[in-house]
Amino acid sequence: MTPEEEDIYRRKQKSRALAMAIGLGVLVVLFYLITIAKIGVAG
Question: Does 41 score more than 90 pLDDT?
Answer without folding.
Answer: no
